[in-house]
Hints:
Elements: H1 6-15, H2 21-43, E1 54-55, E2 58-59, H3 70-84, E3 89-94, E4 101-102, E5 112-120, E6 131-139, H4 149-152, E7 161-167, E8 171-176, E9 181-187, E10 192-197, E11 208-210, H5 221-231, E12 243-244, H6 250-260, E13 263-266, H7 281-294, E14 298-300, E15 320-323, H8 325-338
Parallel strand pairs: 3-5, 11-12, 11-13
Antiparallel strand pairs: 1-2, 3-4, 5-6, 6-7, 7-8, 8-9, 9-10, 13-15, 14-15
Helix pairs in contact: 2-3, 5-8
Bound molecules: 2,5-anhydro-1,6-di-O-phosphono-D-mannitol and magnesium ion.
The site of magnesium ion has 4 residues, from strand 5.
Organism: Luteimonas gilva
Subcellular location: Cytoplasm
Family: Belongs to the FBPase class 1 family.
Amino acid sequence: MSSISLTRFLIEEERAGHVNPDLRLLIEVVARACKSISVAVGKGALGGVLGDVIASGAASINVQGEAQKKLDVLSNEILLEANAWGGHLAACASEEMDHSQPIPDAFPRGAYLLLFDPLDGSSNIDVNVSVGTIFSVLRCPEGVEQAGDEHFLQPGREQVAAGYCIYGPSTMLVLTIGHGTHAFTLDREQGSFVLTQKGMRVPEETKEFAINVSNQRHWEAPMQRYVSDLLAGKEGPRGKDFNMRWIASMVADVHRILTRGGIFIYPWDRKDPGKAGKLRLMYEANPMAMLVEQAGGAASNGRERIMDIAPSQLHQRVPVFLGSKKEVAEATRYHLEHD
Ligand code: AHM
Ligand code: MG
């Protein structure tokens, strides 16, 4: 059978009533922007894009309090520029920008809101390890003339599409429009994404976990107990040995989990209690939660379903437990039993 491009896949989904032309166009534009980011990432040192952004002799710090990489800024610009003129969006919000940005007056405004982490895992860029772009699409509430931050504050279950693009040995786009999670691989010669896995499934059980264990002393009690039971292996209460992986690029860790199962955890920790963990609800946790749930997995903050959390701030942080359904339920049980 001939290969199925992203364009053909989306047109067939439109015929099936799963997507409308505006959302289809939006996804195509995001995919096109990801191809440009993939080219920039792929050039590495030859493109002069590695390292931090330096302004007035010091590293430039973003709204998250983190040093910005040149590729963070470039990827953000690529996504904003690509999405400005299509007429399908009302506004964009990004990990790299303090506030959401409405579509410029020069262009027509559409019905959707786009959120993105333009280059997730960017601490890995300079060491040539996989990074990625994460995105989430919401509907702009009806009757809103000029969308602002408050219009983005919708629970994750309201997402109409979510995905990521991983820039690894191959570039892959993993997408959901609420009818399964599907993977496309970039054919670099043709310049198009080709469907390579329809209906990804996360195995319900796992023997693999992903966590930055260097933070262990800062975790709360049920988290300490959960991980020490995993580490106890066959001899412990879990009765089996677990393996551990941590890439420190959420996109790459989640991609592994969508491919072969596992649990990914970035828990709440005491280091910075006000921040509730490191990862951001709106453009990291929610889109990954939708992708994982659509593949038969689960996503929790340790107590409740991530996609049921009502956000109060655009850059809000949240503890994240996602992946194999039974293991996420197990980690959640440790927390609920403790409360
Ligand atoms: P970023 O969006 O600034 O790149 O931060 C998010 C990343 C995730 O991709 C990854 O899971 C996590 O930070 C790694 O954190 P740590 O450095 O604590 O291992
Ligand atoms: Mg990120």
